[in-house]
UniProtKB/TrEMBL annotation:
This protein's name: Polyketide cyclase
Amino acid sequence: GPGPESVELGLPADARQGALAVAAGEALWRSAETGETITIDLD
């Protein structure tokens, strides 16, 4: 389950949600570095 810090902050996430957050963060970082436009489709 979520750790105490996640619960305290009201930000619990399952593994899929965590993976999506990491992937989105990586994509946004790459976009900022390269200037390329990205599209994130969560469907």
